[in-house]
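We emphasize that the prediction below concerns an isolated chain of 268 residues; any contacts that depend on oligomerization or on bound cofactors are therefore not represented. The input was used exactly as deposited, without trimming of termini.
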Amino acid sequence: MLLTRILLMVSFLICLAIPVVADDEDFDTQMMRASVKIAHDQSTATGFVLSGADGGKFILVTAAHVFEKSPDAETTVIFRSRLSEGVYQKESMKLVIRKDGMPVWTKHPSEDVAAIWIVPPQNADLPSIPVELLASDELLKKHKVHPGELMSCLGYPHRNEANDAGFAILRSGPIGSFPLVPTAKSRTFYLSANTFEGDSGGPVYLTRPSRPQTDAGEVNLILGLVTGNLFLDEEAKMVYGTTKIRHRLGLAIVVHAAFIKETIDKLP
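Result of the prediction step, given as a token string:
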């Protein structure tokens, strides 16, 4: 009887210590909660947070040029705290990205990817999204991810936020290029979606519902992060001069998640 009470008490304390995500919370919502705004005086960008293996530490992932273009030793990362059901408020923190003029983040040797250990504010509302959800070549093949399949992305286009709580804005579009694998050769792919300045570093992910008729379970994968857009530049000649016009082609450039995993593996 005493042993049973002790086991129940231990189970209760474990439940208190470990953040629990509701069983019915969809992957879109989890990714929304995991995405953060990265900002300094000159620009705004996007990042997303994965759970690390080291206790309360997390990993912030973004595009490398986001940190490279930040002129200061610190940048601001904006999280949210949950006050009550459906009520959130911003939780900002300063993140040191340089010491003695040298970067403290880890950059991929060849791709526009950066990762850094981060300890979020104590009240930050974050889901536990494991690194294992980063799509490797094997996972892309296993789940037959293909051109035309609908993806989602999160970001802060031109500094805009979804609401006063500072959540990112979700957009979606199909994969617009082929082949995807081997990722070491393709390196990036196109997402047919309008993205803008401020979206750099935002996650691109797949959430595929379960299909009982085929015994196919739900699939949730992070496929990469946004690093840029495809443009068409042209000159318009006029009587007294010329002007340059830039057209957005509605194609986001996405670095494969395999390179995110390689970057995380290099974290000190």
